[in-house]
Every structure is written in C-alpha cells, then in structure tokens.
Amino acid sequence: MPSSVGHDSPASVREHALNRRGFLRTSLGASAGVLAAPTAVGWLAAADAKAATAPLAFVDDYSTNVVTNSTPETNAVIRALGGFAKVWKTGAAWNTGTPLRPEILRANMRYCVRLTHGRTEEQARDAFVYDRQHQSYAIIGGLGPLADLYRSGAKAVTSITSAPDGIPAAKINDAVPAGAPAGSALGAGSYDSDLGQVARLVDTVRGDFTSSNPAKLSFQYPRPWRMNENSQVVDTGKTDALGYPVYESDVVVVPQLLRQRSDTPAEDGGFPSGHTNAFHLAALAYAYAVPERFQEIVTRAFELSHTRIMSGMHSTVDVMGGRIMATALAAAVLFKPENTALKAAARKQAAEYFQAKTGTTADTLFAYAHSDAGDKYADRDANLALVTPKLTYVLTRQGCSTPLTVPKGAEVLLETRLPYLTAAQRRDVLRTTALPSGYVLLDGFEQWGRLNLFAAADGYGSFESDVTVSLDAAAGGFGAADAWRNDIDGRGGLTKTGTGTLTLTGHNSYRGGTDLTAGTLVSASAHALGRGDVRVLGGTLRVTEPVRVHGTYAQRSGTLAVTLRKGCHTEVVTVTRRALLEKGSVLSLTLDAENPPAVGSVVRVIGAAALRGQFDRIEVDSDHVRAVPVYTAAGLSVRLLKR
Fold this sequence. Notes:
The protein is 28% helix and 16% strand. The protein is of the alpha/beta class. The chain folds into 2 domains: 101-390, no CATH class; 459-642, no CATH class. The strands form 4 sheets. Strands 5, 7, 9, 11, 13, 14, 16, 18, 20 and 21 form a 10-stranded mixed beta sheet that branches. A hairpin with a 2-residue loop joins strand 20 and strand 21. The radius of gyration is 28 Å and the shape is elongated.
C-alpha cells in the first residue's frame, strides 16, 4: 500500500496551533523581509542557537519541516517560502493578516474570481475529481501511451473517476474499489507489483517531512472563498445550507466540493497548496523513473495544480507556493544518499517493464512513449504554452535580474533526463533556463521558485562558457541521443564528442562556435549552429533544414549529411564567411522521402563568401540517382542524374 507518511494529522495540527500564534507575533510579524533574505542577517536575534549561524542548505535541513517547528529560523520549508513574507504579514489570528503588496494579492483574488465564475461544467467536474482522487494516481495520466501499462503493472487504482451531480450527501474519499484486482493499492500502486520500486520511490518522495501543514500554520493566508478581493476576512454572520459560515467573497467553490471544506479555518490555511505540493512531488518522482515522459509529466502537474484555483479552494499564490516547496523537497529526497539504491532500482524497473510490454529497446522507448496521436500532451509547444504563464501567474517582475545560484542538490532532478551531463553541467542547465529574478514570491531562500524544469529538460539555455558534451551510442536512451530545443545564447561554444547523437532545434545565438569531433550533431533549424565558426573534425554533421553558419565553415574530416527537397531556393548550408573542405571530408545526400528534387535538377548545397577545397567523396542515398558536383569560387551545387 502507498505510504501515509509526511501528512500531519488534524490532531497534530490542532495541538500546535497555539504555539504557532506565538511564533507569528514574534517572527513573521516582526519583519516582512526576514524570510526572503538568503543570509542569516535577519535571524541572528532568534533564541534558537541555530539561527546564530548561516542556515544549512535546504537539502541538508528539510527534515526540520514538522508542525512542532514553525519558524523560518528553524524550518527549511518556511524559509524557502520566505518570498511570501514580503507579500503578506501574518496576524495574531488566522483572520487578521495584512497585505504588504496589496496590488499582488488583489490581482490574485481577482484571478480566482474570474476563473471560478468562468469555468465550464466539465472543468468543475474535473476539479472535483482531482481534489478527491489520490494525487499520485492523478499524475499517472502524464505518462500518455504508457499510462494504462503503468496502472496495470503497478496495480494502481482509484474509486474517484467522475463527479456527482450537485452537492453529495456526505464527504467523499478515495478508496480501493470493490472488484479491484487482488493486491491493488491507491496512489502510485502496490510495492508488491511489477512496478513496486517505482511506487516506493513516489511514496518516498512524498514521505517524511513533506507536509504543507507547518507552512500553512505559519503563514495563515486564508482560503480564497473566505476572503474579499483585498484579502480581508469578513464574516457576514450568516451560514449556508450546509452550516458553514458565509464570508464576504466573490469566489465560487465547485458545488461538489462544498461539503469537503474544513470548518476549522485556523488550521486550514490556503498558502501553500497541499494538493499542488503533492502533485509536483509525485510528478518529479515519476519523471525520475520514466524520463521519457519528463516534460509531459511536469506539464500534468501544472495542469492539475491549476484545478485547485478552478475549484475555488486555492489561489494563485497558494499554487505557486506548493510548486516551490515540492521542487525543493523532491530534490532533497532524491539527493539523500540513503535513497541512491531505490532511485536506481526504480529507474531500472520502469525501463525494463515498459520495454518488455511495448517490444521496444532503450533507444526506441521514447518514440513509443510519444506515438499516440490522442495523447493529451503530445504537442510540446502546447505544453509550453500551458506551463509558462503558471510559473508566475499574477506576479509582476521588478528590479534588475541577478544570476541564480543553483541550490545545492537541485541537479538531481535532471539526473535521468540528462544522464550524459555531469552534475556541474546539470547545474549549469538549471541556471541558464531559470526564470529571471524579481518575482517576489519566487525569490525566497535559495530561490527554488526560479527553477524551470520544463525548460531544463530541453537542455542549456545559454553557453556561459565553452561546453563539451559526450553522448555514447551504446548507452541507450537519452545517454545515446537527445535533442536540445531551447534558444541557446551566450559567449561560449559547443564541442560535441562521443559516438551518440545530439540534435539542436532552437534559434541559437551562442557566439563561441561549434566543433564536432565524433558521433552525430543534427542541425534542425535555420540558426541551430549559433553565431560562430563551425568545424567538423570528425563524425557527421547532419543538416535537416537549411542552416546559416555565421562565421567560417571548416570540414577537415568527417561527413556533412544534408537532406535535399524539391523547391528549395537557397543553399542547404549558407556560410557568411569562408568555407574550407579538406582532404578526407565527405558529403552525404539524402533525398526527402515526401518531396524529393527531380532528376535533372540542380540543387545548391553550400553557398559561401569563398569556397576552397573539395569533398573527397559524394554519396547519394538512392539506388537510382547520382550527384555530379559543380564547384565554384562561392559554393557547391549538385546536378542530380539517373544512375
């Protein structure tokens, strides 16, 4: 069965509510800026001796996240969420807090009102399902074509598959449904199953010290349905049909969830969202075990978290807070040395299980995992459009951007997605794909909120210095072949080594040049190769779309492989300076399968300010066509003739 650790009981929460109020008056209420500062300056006055030294890195201190420990000086999660202390000042009671950035919180509440008033019936029903369904089960949908295989292999089940009409007669909770296969379990599934190690990893990531309750008790930012647009709690003195107090609020809760509301507001804060925390924790565990669906699983977590706002149960700041704490907590658990064996076992088990069930290999599983035209997350650009606005929601950016110091251990989140990079390189990826600073809620201790894992899964965002990457064709999976889809800038350059394949698809502007020494480098966009010189010293440079080399092109050995299409009116490779072809260089031509150029046509392959040298050999991937080269001082064309 899934583990229940990491979730404080209501009794435990109530037991420490009074202690929390003392903390609120002396800590958060004292200074709105204390939590946000990434140093110990604001904490030196704390009675706890721990506050007299610089705080530990989150990954080394996350076990302090318990309800008996509710101060930013001593609780790592509350400290990581400290950006919110610049937005909201906690009061002495649950309903007496004060906005410090009223424009942000007003936009926050107005967003909730618009969303809950404009939702469709289908959206309302979905919001109910994902409120009541075990969060670890809900995330399985991000596996796409692998989802049903996972559910059966893990014996993962749920009893929440649809929403009732109207307000249910009693509270509804998830349970193993009658008639489920023997050994079935809620959430990620049963440990005694073909995917038991994966289920165990998900539960471990969601396990001890990952509850949102300590932070809820600390910040005491109410649920949106208890507040007006100024984040004030005004009790009208009335009660609704279910006996709940009616507050001054324009937020409309999904009818099916009205009975699920808590009647103890002091123990039921909105910030951070516990469901969002759980969604993202589960997602990052699944993404570690099944990196073939990394971006899609992350997208699923953002989509399900958004239903918390749609339902009327949470606001945008609550959801952002849940994501921030989950990112830090998932990294902390995965970084923990005691979990090294479990991580490896879960990844190995998932790969072997899915390959066996689909008849694929390590090299072809990714294609299968993206083979379903009906996959809700099949469109990467649509996923990007879904995720991007939800990273910041209503926040506006202020101030100058400062580079991110990647939190200790964060690189573990990309360990299976970018296995061919070193830990230091994965940190570089996280830094160069991070959100800019200046979003107040995201700028808490160690700035975990700035990490953009969706973008990081697409490789570097910038080459701040020269980058050497080696992929091994024998490694299989991402270790053998990967694609970097970000627009890469920076002063550094790229050196591709190893027998594997790296594909560049972005509008790249890095200035340090591109060297290929071995394996295959695929140029898949017009500006894939940046704005520097390109040198082919070995291996194969494969050009699938016409590309511009903003500098000198020098091929000293290896192969230039290009795809020729009918109707292409420009060179396949345009070189703004000189092109140099040395002895040992090869040109390999592939005729586009759907739109090949006609026999007898002349196709321009290379155009340059000046061309020197010739290819040793020109190959054509056709039994019926041969290519006759036509060299000039400014380039190379080929005439296609019958063999």
